[in-house]
Amino acid sequence: MAQRKIKTVDGQRFEDHCDRFQERNDCILYKQGLFNTVKINKRNISTDNIHGAAGEMMILVLMVLGVLMAGFVILSNSAR
Questions:
Q1: 3-state secondary structure at position 13
Q2: Cα–Cα dist 32/42, whole Å
Q3: For residue 59, what are the CA distances in angstroms to 2, 8, 70?
Q4: Dihedral of alpha carbons 22, 28, 33, 34, sign
Q5: Model confidence, pTM
Q6: Long-range contacts of 61-68 (CB under 8 A, 24+ apart)
Q7: What is the mean pLDDT of residues 12-30?
């Protein structure tokens, strides 16, 4: 599961699974618990990083596309 880390200008840090963060136009809602949601103003964010499953999935997709392209080239060359 992908992780998201947000650091605000005033030093607050929020780190959790991406599914706990919800994007809005002017803010990000962070669900800390069942009844506790924090509103993070986007203008107050100094860093916002997402890492984990999203990056791993992109690598997998690129590997599959590379294998498919190689197979296509081999088949098109053998058909001549």
A1: strand
A2: 18
A3: 14, 30, 17
A4: negative
A5: 0.61
A6: none
A7: 92
